[in-house]
Amino acid sequence: MQRFNVLHIITKLELGGAQKSALYIVTLLNKDRYNLSLVTSNEGVLIPDALNIPKINVSFLPTLKRTIDPIRDFLTLISLTRFIKNKKFDIVHTHSSKAGILGRWAARFAGVPVILHTIHGWGFHDRQNLLMRRFFIFLERITAKITDKLISVSQSDIKKGLDAGIATADKYTLIRYGIPIREFTNCKVNIKKKKEELGLKTDSPVVGMVAGFKPQKAPEDFLKVVAVVKKVFPETKFLLVGDGILRKKLENLRNRFNLKNDLVFAGWRRDIPQIMSILDVFVLTSLWEGSPISLLEAMGCALPIVATSTGGAQETVQNGINGFLVSAGDIQAMAQRIVTLLENKVLACKMGQEGRKSLDFSFEIKYTVKQIDKLYQTLADRSNLCQATSLSF
């Protein structure tokens, strides 16, 4: 069997959808067909997970950071180009905005035959400074020209890219996020014990969110929603799973709203299926999104969802069927929807079951990886890699 040398590049292995997806792909791709490598920064809670994946080569690039730094980014570009050229990669597949730009140009300079990028949500959005937004769109436009295929996890990101003049429709392909569905649908957990482990009163309903503490996810809005819901359901407890640059601000808000006994900051967790299983309502307050993988995880655990109507969330949550969608930043509307679900347990249960039922085979991670594999083979054939591939590694 023809074997291809494939490199995946991602900026930082934090606990997010892009990172989980990238690790799922390199874990499940056929190791008899691909020599797999991963390059990332030397930071991130998922680094141990990457190092434990069998039969992949993991390399760390400390200069690969999210923030824009022309000198550091130039050094990263040089390092990546040398690395890719030395390893003779046949396919380079990038994830996330910074790694997506630098990684694709490094692949181009190194003469890689096949270059792909997965859009886990664009790096530009409506809440940016206009000049910064235009700059990011410009970078994406010119980099799309050297990209063989743009993989989108949502229809909304394809539309957003086309509206911004980034490539033509034939360059995009839709491959949605997948999850290991059975890990969520068949999760076994002692709910009382897990609540006690997290410091939650065992007989109280729990409303939770899993997200990084960064502006995109608007965790401050979650705390504002909590303060409103508490006035109606004072016995409710709340759980925020994640961490990030807004941690101190959130701690100050928790104190200001007098929520220290009601809201638990759980930090980054590896037991997400078990965490989801103790919740009564799942919430997501994002201001912009690609396609939140946490919504699929919540659906797998049969949770009713209250989320903002941003990006791919609108393609996952059917408003009024498996959850509620509200406008980003609308604290009162989100709080009211949560109250509705806490008041009406029959409705909450029905919505949760509808969400679980809608997780068909197309959301199974093995199906996602099968689509990636098929795309690799198609692009390899188109680039005549089957005749030209070097097996040295």
Model description:
- The protein contains 17 helices and 13 strands.
- The chain is α/β, with parallel strands linked by helices and 393 residues long.
- The chain folds into two domains: 4-178 and 364-388, 3-Layer(aba) Sandwich (Rossmann fold), CATH 3.40.50; 181-360, Rossmann fold.
- Helix 9 crosses helix 14 (331-343) and helix 12 packs across helix 15.
- The chain is globular and about 60 Å long.
- Mean pLDDT is 94; it is low at 388-393.
Could you list some keywords that capture this structure?
393 residues, alpha/beta, Rossmann fold, 2 domains, seven-stranded parallel beta sheet, six-stranded parallel beta sheet, 17 helices, globular, disordered C terminus
SSE topology sketch:
Layout: E1 4-10, H1 17-28, E2 34-40, H2 47-51, E3 56-60, H3 70-87, E4 91-95, H4 97-109, E5 114-119, H5 130-144, E6 149-152, H6 155-163, E7 172-174, H7 181-185, H8 191-197, E8 206-210, H9 219-232, E9 237-241, H10 247-256, E10 263-267, H11 272-277, E11 281-284, H12 293-300, E12 305-308, H13 313-316, E13 323-326, H14 331-343, H15 345-357, H16 365-382, H17 385-388
Parallel strand pairs: 1-2, 1-4, 2-3, 4-5, 5-6, 6-7, 8-9, 8-11, 9-10, 11-12, 12-13
What would you say about this model in short?
This protein is of the alpha/beta class. It has helices at about 15-30, 45-50, 70-85, 95-110, 130-145, 155-165, 180-185, 190-195, 220-230, 245-255, 270-275, 295-300, 315, 330-345, 345-355, 365-380, 385-390; strands at about 5-10, 35-40, 55-60, 90-95, 115-120, 150, 170-175, 205-210, 235-240, 265, 280-285, 305-310, 325. The chain is built from 17 helices and 13 strands.
